[in-house]
Design a protein that fits this description.
Radius of gyration: 52 Å
CATH architecture of one domain: Beta Barrel
Number of helices: 0
Order of helices and strands: EEEEEEEEEEEEEEEEE
Largest sheet: 8 strands, antiparallel, barrel
Strand content: 35-45%
Shape: elongated
Structural class: mainly beta
Helix content: under 10%
Number of strands: 17
CATH class of one domain: Mainly Beta
Length: 281
């Protein structure tokens, strides 16, 4: 089995004619060739040495076999676009299967500040099939403001690959994923971030603290909406009852004749009735 190890260590890269960019810290990545099924996840820890020297320690696992590992010490110098590193000595290794070897040589890295990314090209010393290698590293860095206004909607932005955000160091309270996190903070808060890009047993948690300035504006409690008044249907007056239709009055036949006299005589009881005479005309 061919066990290949890649590594790189960085301290200062020239970002311009005067100002230098620090590359100290922890990087996480992989050595993998396009189209190759083999890969080697790794963690790179970097610190500055004296003058232009840079020092580093690299841990690597064999992809698919995390029990096979190595730790190398590296040493290198700055270049105009990055740095050049060399394997110095093997610090530790675990090979439970008792076979394989580690490739060693020189690695030239180029730094991409916008993504906090290192791309390395290695030329290995002749050993077995060790020839060349290609490496990709990322690190987590805060890319947005370190201080935000209290209570304001702020978008926190970080570098890294497949980033997971947590509210606690034990990583039991996930709050976001990805390189941005929109949130409102009312007090200084620390988030704990991990990269999901080729994680290893040595991958660390990166703590990022966001300071909060000022006091959050008091928010008036929302008032419940006013109850809508019931809309009453218009009252429709009942139609008045129709006046009853009266039948025409039929007068009795007039019992008078023009110029006639109606008379009455005394009855048998002795009461007399005056004779009434009427003359119509």
């Amino acid at each position: 089995m061919k066990i290949r190890f890649w590594g790189g260590a960085v301290a200062l890269l020239l970002a311009g004619p005067v100002r230098a960019q620090s590359l100290a810290g922890e990087w996480q990545g992989v050595e993998a060739e396009p189209g190759d099924t083999e890969f080697w996840p790794a963690v790179l820890r970097v610190q500055a040495g004296k003058d232009a020297a840079v020092l580093g320690v690299l841990y690597e696992e064999v992809g698919g076999d995390p029990e096979t590992t190595s730790t190398f010490q590296l040493h290198g110098t700055r270049t105009a676009t990055g740095l050049r590193l060399s394997h110095v000595r093997l610090l530790d290794e675990t090979r439970p299967h008792g076979r394989g070897y580690w490739c060693r040589g020189n690695i030239t890295f180029t730094y991409d500040a916008s993504q906090e990314k290192l791309i390395g090209h290695a030329t290995y010393l002749p050993q077995g099939d060790c020839t060349t290698g290609t490496f990709t590293f990322y690190r987590v860095r805060l890319k947005s403001a370190a201080t935000v206004p209290a209570g304001a909607l702020s978008t926190l932005r970080v570098s890294g690959r497949d980033v997971r955000w947590f509210a606690d160091a034990e990583l039991t309270q996930p709050v976001a994923t990805g390189n941005t996190y929109p949130t409102r903070l009312r007090k200084t808060t620390t988030f704990y971030l991990k990269q999901g890009y080729y994680p290893t047993a040595q991958s660390s948690v990166v703590a990022i603290t966001i300071n909060v300035s000022g006091a959050a504006k008091a928010v008036a409690p929302a008032q419940p909406p006013a109850a809508a008044r019931p809309r009453l249907a218009p009252t429709v007056a009942a139609p008045l009852p129709s006046a009853p239709t009266l039948a025409p009055i039929v007068l009795p036949t007039v019992l008078f004749r023009v110029g006639s006299t109606i008379g009455a005589s005394v009855g048998a009881d002795g009461r007399g009735a005056a004779t009434v005479g009427a003359s119509l005309g």
